[in-house]
Every structure is written in structure tokens, then in C-alpha cells.
Amino acid sequence: FKNCAFTEFSIPASVTKICAQAFMNCSALKTLKFEAGTSEKKLVLETEAFYGCGNMDLADDGVLPSRIISIAAQTFKQCGITKLTLPQNNNMGALGYGAFFGCSNLTDLTIPANVTVINEVVFQDCNLKNVTFKDATKITEIQNYAFTNNKNLTGIFAKKDFANLKTIGKGAFQNCFKLTDADFKNLTKNVTRIENETFRNCH
Q1: What's the Cα-to-Cα distance from 118 to each of 19, 73, 114, 143, rounded to whole Å?
Q2: Among the listed residues 90, 103, 104, 98, the one whose alpha carbon sits nearest the alpha carbon of residue 119
Q3: Per-residue buried b or exposed e for 149-158, using 16+ beta carbons within 10 Å of the residue's own CB
Q4: 153 alpha-carbon distance from chain centroid
Q5: What is the pLDDT along the chain (203 residues), one digit of tens a residue?
Q6: C-beta neighbour count of 10 within 10 angstroms
Q7: Listed residue (145, 158, 143) closest to 188, CA to CA
Q8: Do 64 and 85 touch, CB atoms closer than 8 A?
Q9: Cβ distance 57 to 31 under 8 Å?
Q10: Which helix (H) or strand (E) holds 186?
Q11: Are residues 160 and 138 in contact, defined by beta-carbon separation less than 8 angstroms?
Q12: How far apart are CA 7 and CA 80, in angstroms?
């Protein structure tokens, strides 16, 4: 379906894999929906599956179904997603490199407790304002440039317990101008390694 002219598309509950670049650069696509089913099968999203679908938002208020067990590198890069809740299951421990890179309309993000690693550049160049970490978050590592250039990101870490977080990568929050002292204090409470330029240009 690469470069297709669909405006809406629904992924049936019977589908178990969306292959690499399957919907790449479908600029006319406005809505993507993952259908529910009585016996849902596990679903894998491969590399660049929806890369460049710049007008595409997610149905169901951005909630990705729990049957998605893998989101590969650059799967949703430069898509038009506005809200996102990551899948909640025991298989989804990490996201692929740059999975949501450059989703410049993305303002609201919910991260379930099962996610353990925020991978490199995964939310770089988005427009995040509201990020919700579910209680008992198990995050152990925020990798290089994970949230770089989210200039409106503020106050999201101040009231959470990041007991398992040990490493924050290079430039992870670079140019996140609105992060607060409380954010910094709570994020780094149990951290053992902070890389170069992690909080560069944070005020």
C-alpha cells in the first residue's frame, strides 16, 4: 500500500504482522484504526510501516491495542498523530529506534508501567506537552536524544517515583526548555549514570 490514496484504513484483528514500509508515505491517509476482535492475535509492526504518513492520526483517541507486542524502528516516523497511549502488555518492553520521531503534532503521551526503556530519538522533534507515566513505572533507561527538542515539555516528572531508572542518555532532554527543578530532582533520584548534554538548554 506504499504511496496509496486511502483516507481511512482499519487493521483487522486477524492480522499478525504489518511488514516494513507497508503504508509508507500514504499522505492522503487521515485515520488509522486497529479493529478489536473476540480472539485477538498478537501484532508486530515492522520498520517504517507508516513512515511519512504526515496527515495520519490514530482512531480511538490514540490508544494502541494491547495486542501490539512490537513497534520497530521508525514505524510511525513523521506521522500526524496527536495523542498516543502505548500498548499495555508484558511483551512491549521497549520501542524501536525513532519509532515516533518527528511526529510534530503529538502533544499527549501515556506510557504504561510495562515499558522499561525509552529508546534513542523515539520522541525527538515531537511537540509533547503532557506525558503521563502510569503508576509503578518500570522504566530503567531513557536513551540518547529520546525527548530532544520537545520545547513545551514541563512538569511531567515531578510527582512520579522513578525507582528503577538508572541511566539517562546523551542529550535525552536537550532543548526541553520548560523542564523544572522538580522534574530534574525526581528523575535523577536513583540514577547512576547521566551522559553528556542530557539537560542542555533546560532552564
Answers
A1: 23, 12, 11, 6
A2: 98
A3: bbeebbebbe
A4: 14
A5: 888 888 999 999 889 999 999 999 999 999 999 987 656 689 999 999 999 999 999 999 999 999 999 999 999 999 999 999 999 888 887 889 999 999 999 999 999 988 999 999 999 999 999 888 887 788 999 999 999 999 998 867 767 788 899 999 999 999 998 888 777 787 888 889 999 988 888 87
A6: 12
A7: 158
A8: yes
A9: yes
A10: helix 181-187
A11: no
A12: 13
Q: For residue 26, what are the contacts with CB-CB under 8 A and spacing of at least 6? A: 1, 2, 3, 4, 5, 6, 50, 52, 53, 56
Tell me which residue of 87, 80, 95 sits closest to 32, measured CA to CA.
80
Q: In sequence order, what are the residues at sequence separation of 6 or more whose Cβ sits closer than 8 angstroms to the Cβ of residue 106?
A: 81, 82, 83, 84, 100, 123, 126, 127, 128
Closest to 118 in 3D by CA, of 135, 103, 102, 133: 133
